[in-house]
Amino acid sequence: MTVIALAVGGTEIEAGVLAEDGALMHSERRFTRAERGPEAVIDTVIDCAAELAREYRPAAAGIAVPGIVDEAAGTCVFAANLGWRRVPVRDWLAEELDLPVAFGHDVRAGGLAEARLGAGRECGSFLFVPVGTEIAAAIVLGGEAFAGEQGSAGEIGHLVVRPDGEPCPCGRRGCLQTVASACAIARRYSRATGEIGVSARDVRDRADAGDAVAAEVWRDAVEALADGLSAAVTLLDPECIVIGGGLARAGAAYFDPLRTALAERLTFRTAPPVRPAELGHRAGCLGAALLARDLHRAGPATSPQPVTPRQISQKAVG
Ligand SMILES: [Zn+2]
To answer: Most buried residue among 72, 141, 264, 270 by CB atoms closer than 10 A?
Structure first.
């Protein structure tokens, strides 16, 4: 029994095919090119899934999307980076593929994959925190990612950690992701030096090489993340923290100061272990594949509901 899966991101769509034994038979990435508009993005997603379905004849499909998602309804309620508002992704994909489709949130799907296949395997509870363009967390409890009442559990990127800090697209100032995301590290270094085109990885390399500005930007990012994580640990007391995204590849230059900063903040208790994710950029896609496999194994659902026409109206995206 084969399943296909897609994880839709603001920059890339990660697609894959999972074999019966859980092996990844095929994977590919396509550019999202969200600047083409919300309808073009959904067309690309559906075309990619349809091509994989024709080639691999899967039993089910899974899709994970960013933003605020209603997992029960199969709807992307709002994804700023895709321009999607109230897009019934699951139904549109199911209609196009004529397959059962599992639907999830990208970070929660990634957390599920890390729980079953990656760095969270041994943990009863953990926070999966991908640090990339933005920052969000999956709260994984007993192998399931907790979605919350409105589907927005774990949005720690919008915890205010620097009240007088930079404005965030959410409307507040000093959110965690304005200091600690990979984009924020690059942006803050560029602003301080006037040099453009510098990545978070470059900032780390320059900090290692003795660049004082880079070292300060890097330290600010680590300390802000420790502030956010200490709030999450205080509230949830997870068994461990799994850091994903591009910054998780920075190794000891990231994890050593992060562990120290977290321990300094959790004065009343021992800090949980902080470890890098194991599945890299494939976590969301693998999670969507696991959701598809679970759906298939659960057996046929109730009869499908009539599907609304596949068109994102101006009203819906306005
Ligand atoms: Zn914010």
So the answer is: 141
How far is it, in rounded angstroms, from Cα 255 to Cα 59?
40
Half-sphere exposure of 208 (CA within 13 A, CB side): 11
**pLDDT for residue 252 is more than 70:** yes
Report how far ligand 1's centroid is from the alpha carbon of 68 (Å). Answer: 14
Q: How far is the CA of 79 from the centre of ligand 1 (A)?
A: 14
**45 CA → ligand 1 middle, Å:** 27
Query: Do 212 and 300 share a domain, yes or no?
Result: no
Look up the pTM and report it: 0.91
What spacing in Å lies between the alpha carbon of 161 and ligand 1's midpoint? 10
Task: Report the separation in Å between the CA atom of 177 and the middle of ligand 1, taken as the mean of its atom positions.
Answer: 7
Domain holding 301, by residue range, is 3-108+282-317
Report how far ligand 1's centroid is from the alpha carbon of 164 (Å): 13
Read off the CATH number of the domain in which 221 is found: 3.30.420.40
Residue 302 has pLDDT above 60, yes or no: no
pLDDT in the model for residue 305: 56
Together in a domain, 96 and 47: yes
C-alpha count within 13 angstroms, C-beta hemisphere, residue 176: 25
